[in-house]
Amino acid sequence: MTDSEHRLLELLAAGASSDELARVPADGAAVRLAMDIRRTLDARSRREAELAALFDTASDLARLRDLDAVLRSIVHRARMLLRVDVSYLSLNDEAEGGTYMRVTDGSASALFQQLRLGMGEGLGGLVAQTARPYATANYPADDRFEHTGPIDRAVGDEGLVAILGVPLSLGEQVIGVLYASDRRTREFSPDEVALLSSFADHAAIAIDNARALAELASANATIRAHHESLARAQEAHDRLTELVLGGADVRQVAEAVAAVLGGGIVVHDADGAELGRSGGGPATRSPEAIAASRTAGRAVPDGDVWVCAVLAGPELLGSITLSGRPALSDADRRLFERASVVTALLLLLRRSAAEAEDRVRGELVADLLTTPGRDPAALLDRGRRLGVDLAAPHVVLALHAGDVSRARLASAAARRGVLAGVHAEQVVLLAVSESPGAFSRTLATDLTAVLGSPVTVGAAGPASGPAELAAAHAEAARCLRALLVLGRQGHGAAPAELGFVGLVLGDRADVPEFVRATLGPVLDYDEAKGTELLRTLRAYFGCGGNLSRAKDELHVHVNTVAQRLERISSLLGPGWQDPDRALELQLALRLRELAS
């Protein structure tokens, strides 16, 4: 071995550059061999460095969890590995059928950073479409690619010349493109293409992992929100149930529901009467919305409010309306529906309590009117336990409504008196008033409006103590029968307002028939002859049978009165002036007068 060859080996061992090797005075073949060895060693070292960098990059990507952080790391590492001016990454948009710029590193052009490419357009569109890498030393002059105005303007604005693009693939699916680019002409070697492709494979896996983690985090957030919603709904349900079982009224429950949902709450009963509210809300309910909620079994929107039917099985107990929350989440909607269940529980408890109290009060009414003298002190004591002083003056009223059940009539009447019940198939009410007639008329009008059916009321009193109250009830019942016989359904009256006619005739069923049977011949004669026999008969009885007074009342001669009475005798037959027959005639005359 010559000294020159020995010197070349020493320089190679020391890592000398190709220039240093070229200056050694030695055989040309030996120098070329040494330089080839140097290039091989340099390539191997570079490859080792690239592989080390690729391994470090893959390790870093594996530790990242946030998708944006993963994408930024990918393009930055790609730029460093290939020592290029700009690196960037686009992701495919399956819905739009193209690929769009997602992250850049080293870019200065806003136009370039917002670029979108259709499938097959430009270098990136072709990579995304074919799932194959493409490289060009001079993109603007390369006619292998489909140049478009937007792409060329963006590339020109960034000043890019050489571009390398490789697919980001997951199996057969291309999810995007990874690029390396320089602002000068540059040939990308096969090793550089392979290096960026290897990096893209790691990057695709990192992107997929980050997406999976993001989806998992979203699912966990959804589950957590669902659990929180269930916990909130359960807490609200427990709170409302505790309120109901603790004796809260409808208003207190409405306030609690309004506080939970952050809106106004209004509760109506099945007939549309408002039971309680908190905050704003419609004064009237929507029958259509309630029907829709009842059919669906869920809360339904009605304009800017939400409505939920309050049900006990198939029975409609009422409705609950939420205002101030036009956009209601599923969780809050379910909470609102739970509130309707709790409201149903409250209304059922109220109804059960009312029914129990009505039974107790009804039993007192029945005992008071059936056996008032058996143990008056016990009756007074039972009344005091119910908050009613039976020793104080009370008006007694008997009520009738043909198309309404007695239970419903008694329930409606109870709100307007102190004690209500059913006795002898008839609703009875005790109330505090000094004017039975005026009270009965007001009560008849109010209940007729509430129940939608004529309510007739007979009144008597005031009376104090069990015995007097029982007697007053008998009088009120007779007055009620008289009103019904007289055809005055939907009215109220006291006996003094009907005179003795109503009391005497209270049990007769057909007033017109009675009048016709009693006065028929006289009525027919007057109608046929145009006479005034009926008027004469009325004046005769009104003057106590005194002919002289009767002729003054009629403004005729006494002989005329006598002649007319003879005609009446011929029509009615003998005995019409006997006491019993005369009473019937007078009753018929009075009834005809009242009915006219």
TrEMBL record:
SUPFAM superfamilies: GAF domain-like. InterPro entries: CdaR-like_regulators (IPR051448), CdaR_GGDEF (IPR041522), GAF (IPR003018), GAF-like_dom_sf (IPR029016), PucR_C-HTH_dom (IPR025736), PucR_C-HTH_sf (IPR042070). This is Diguanylate phosphodiesterase. Residues 66-217 form the GAF domain. Belongs to the CdaR family. It comes from the Bacteria.
